Amino acid sequence: NGEMNLDAFAQWAAELTAKQLAPEQQCVMIAFSAGGGFAPIVIKKLEVLHPNPAAGIILLDPLYKVGGGLSSTHPDLATAMIATSVLDNLPVDTTDWARLRAGILQQFPSYARRFKGFETWHTVLKELAQDDGFASGTKMAEVSCPVRLLVCTNFKGMEMFEGAAGGDGCLPFWQGRLPQLTVDRVESSHVDIPFQAETSDKVVDFLREIIPSLEVTEAKLAAGKKNFDELKGFMDKARLDFRQTFQKGFPGDTFQL
User: What pLDDT is recorded for position 131?
Assistant: First the structure.
């Protein structure tokens, strides 16, 4: 309820997490891209709501510069991000972003909520950039739990994030704010890192390190991967259906100026 801002967002996320935990349980927070910037702030709020501290944080290609890279000069970042589900190869300088946004909304009126959500999210991100914990590390330094940082090796298809989130570029920022973190690389693009088998293997290795009593058998791991692959298959099919529906409405249109 009310206007969403940084404090309200972090409080909401912490309360939602606390509701899922029994008093004796601990959480491990996994945060991807822009979400990574909020993870330490949410963890600090969770400490007030839950008797057990977080067992660890896993950052997947996290944000390190609000408005960095191509995102700082892009004429319509919301449309560029949302359009990845319906079109490829959209040059920044020659794409008619206004007509593309109108086309998406014409074909999928419900996407108006996505655009609204992105605008809200971007407002919170701008506030994050001014927060002491993100800007100077004063709040993040209070987060003492183990942290594993997984970074991608390329930005194929999501060049707008290069210089703003993930990759080796994020290392100095996060190593300065969370000195206890350990780093690992995943052969992947920024957008695909959450879906890689290598990522899940490295996540499990970290969980075993920080929770020695955790029992993750190969059978359980295989079953989890199978369920994930099935879910990813459904998601891929849904994206393909969206793309085909959009392209039927605008056959051959590349939305160039």
Answer: 72
